[in-house]
Amino acid sequence: TPVVLGADRVAVETYMQIPGEGLRMKVDVFRKQVPPGSPLHNLLLRYIQTLMNLVMQSVACNRLHSVEQRCCRWLLLTHDRVDSDEFPLTQEFLSQMLGVRRASVSEIAAKLQKAGLINYYRGRITILDRPGLEAGSCECYRVIQQGYERLLGSH
Questions:
Q1: What is the pTM of this model?
Q2: Contact call for residues 71 and 65 (beta carbons, < 8 A)
């Protein structure tokens, strides 16, 4: 993101929320391969706008909505971006993403599991009832998803 926006280096640490593969390249190589105005550069600018929308909506969501609604939103957004109904996710990591104590995540996960929306066992989440999770989420999920689809197309 910083390089697409004109920075000459990236001074941030990156981590993957869900295990998988990641690649990196040197800034000068990236700039040669993705010049301003190219189709990929334009796509990356739309991705950055989508990311900014996500951050802004998440800030408002964190202030206005319950931890349970925010948890449903986070699970839905993650489910949208992985290629499976099941994915690894620890309570510790989810608590960091939601900005709450791990015990709060444990209570919410138990409640969602009891409602039949998810199965949660040993750091693995399985989405069982996506429409139920959508009903449990606040409107922020729909706002974020509509912006994503408008700027980048459906997932």
A1: 0.86
A2: no
